[in-house]
């Protein structure tokens, strides 16, 4: 820091906030730390009693907070994202289009372990809409040693820390099992729920086939939808371990590779995920999806809609944050449910 006359401060950077106090009216900063003094600022600074100012002296090998915040924003990436103008050493990053927000959590952790810098983000695998804020960057002091930023660059690597996977337009088939529905003893209430959730995305529902608790009928219904051009098939009913619940075995009989039967999510433990021909999701949805406001389906569907293919480890990671608390007022996804996904 260097103390200079206020009249000579044009073009220099303030090292601290300048506060204006008017008794009974206001007590607030008129200029923030990091502000670059202009000619128009001089009368205001003098009016608050600042005839001298502490300003930042540029030093070789050190960066001002504004420049450093831009460096950190660059580590995050900008494909499908926009940056706010740097202000008071901070840059906000927002979504330019709808999609699934992805964070390389491990690399972000390593970057945030570097002293005096920070990048805060939304949780990974969050649905975002155009204009949503994704992240914010800044350094802690007014100036920072460039060596720390170089360390952050090395830890971040060449790939951006953040990305947005755009949602795809898809076709879906719904296979509803259960003798009680098939024979008309009760009205199907599962199909409307699935259609409503799919309507949040660009999905054409090819139709709904209601079949008996019969492995061959279920298999034929799944395969027929795929032959009609379905990009994904959702099977409802028959997902428990009861002897007459044959949906899991029917899915297997199509030749689809089962990633998991069971998930560490409540509601949603009896969930099945498989892929037909390696890339068409065939999903078994447990009964809870029909009556719970949010469930495993809400965590998985956005990833299916971006072709974000999941393996067993992806499903296992959902256990941390996989407990829905059934809040009286549901705020999902702005809550802990699915927070580790």
UniProtKB/TrEMBL annotation:
It catalyses: adenylyl-molybdopterin + molybdate = Mo-molybdopterin + AMP + H(+). Belongs to the MoeA family. InterPro entries: MoaB/Mog-like_dom_sf, MoaB/Mog_dom, MoeA-like. Pathway: Cofactor biosynthesis; molybdopterin biosynthesis. It is an enzyme of class 2 (transferase). The keyword Magnesium applies. SUPFAM superfamilies: Molybdenum cofactor biosynthesis proteins. Its EC number is 2.10.1.1. This is Molybdopterin molybdenumtransferase. GO terms for cellular component: cytosol. Pfam families: MoCF_biosynth. Catalyzes the insertion of molybdate into adenylated molybdopterin with the concomitant release of AMP. Keywords: Magnesium, Metal-binding, Molybdenum, Molybdenum cofactor biosynthesis, Transferase. Its cofactor is Mg(2+). It comes from the Bacteria. Residues 173-306 form the MoaB/Mog domain. One of its GO terms (molecular function) is molybdopterin molybdotransferase activity. One of its GO terms (biological process) is Mo-molybdopterin cofactor biosynthetic process.
């Amino acid at each position: 820091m260097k103390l200079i006359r206020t009249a000579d401060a044009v073009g220099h950077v303030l090292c601290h906030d300048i506060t204006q106090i008017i008794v009974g009216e206001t007590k607030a900063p008129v200029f923030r730390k990091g502000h670059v003094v202009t000619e128009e600022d001089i009368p205001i600074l003098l009016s608050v009693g600042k005839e001298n100012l502490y300003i930042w002296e540029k030093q070789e090998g050190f960066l001002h907070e504004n420049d450093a915040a831009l460096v950190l924003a660059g580590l995050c990436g900008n494909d499908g994202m926009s940056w706010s103008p740097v202000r008071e050493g901070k840059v906000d990053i927002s979504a330019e289009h709808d999609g699934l927000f992805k964070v390389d959590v491990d690399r972000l952790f390593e970057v945030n372990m570097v002293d005096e810098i920070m990048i805060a983000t939304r949780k990974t695998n969050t649905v975002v809409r155009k204009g949503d804020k994704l992240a914010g960057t800044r350094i802690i002091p007014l100036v920072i040693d460039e060596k720390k930023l170089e360390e952050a660059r090395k830890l971040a690597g060449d790939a951006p820390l953040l990305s947005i996977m755009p949602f795809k337009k898809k076709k879906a088939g719904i296979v509803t099992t259960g003798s009680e529905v098939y024979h008309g003893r009760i009205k199907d209430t599962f199909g409307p729920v699935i259609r409503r959730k799919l309507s949040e995305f660009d999905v054409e529902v090819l139709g709904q086939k209601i079949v008996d608790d019969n492995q061959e009928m279920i298999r034929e219904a799944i395969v027929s939808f795929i032959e009609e051009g379905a990009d994904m098939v959702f099977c409802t009913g028959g997902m428990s371990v009861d002897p007459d619940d044959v949906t899991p075995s029917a899915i297997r009989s199509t030749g689809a590779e089962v990633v998991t039967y069971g998930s560490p999510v409540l509601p949603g433990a009896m969930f099945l995920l498989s892929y037909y021909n390696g890339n068409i999701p065939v999903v078994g949805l447990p009964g809870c999806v029909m009556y719970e406001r949010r469930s495993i389906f809400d965590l998985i569907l956005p990833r299916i809609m971006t072709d974000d293919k999941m393996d067993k480890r992806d499903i296992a990671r959902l256990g941390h944050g996989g407990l829905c608390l059934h809040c009286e007022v549901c705020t999902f996804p702005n809550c802990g449910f699915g927070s580790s996904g």
